[in-house]
Write a structure and sequence with these properties.
Layout lengths: L1 E10 L4 H17 L3 E17 L2 E13 L1 H12 L4 E9 L13 H9 L1
Antiparallel strand pairs: 1-3, 1-4, 2-3
Length: 116
Amino acid sequence: MNLYEHTIIARQDTSPSEIKLLTEKYSKIVEKNKGEIVKTENWGLINLSYLIKKNKKGSYIHFKIKGDGKMIGELEKNEAIDKKLLRYLTIRVKKFDLDTNYFNPKKDDIEKKKDN
C-alpha cells in the first residue's frame, strides 16, 4: 500500500456543515475503493496567495491516506467535477508525520502574545 497526503480547498462561502459533508463524502470514496483514512485535519479558512475562481480565501481539509493509485484516481475524478472545491492536491510520501500539527498555534507563539 502507498501512503498519500491529500489536500482539498473548498470555496470560502462553504459552511462548516458543508465542510463536514465534503469530508465524509471523500472519506467514503476512499473506503469504497479499498483505501484507509489514517488522519483527517480541518485546517480552516486560510488566505490564498492569489485569486482562484474569484475567491480570496479557502477552507482547507487535509487527509492522510493509505491506498493504491486507482483509489486516488477515483478520488480526484470526483473532485474535478465538484463545484464546491477550488483545488485539490495529492502527494505520495514515504511515511506520515502524525505528531506535528502545522496549523495550530505553537505554545511559544501563545506565550509571546500574552507577554505583549
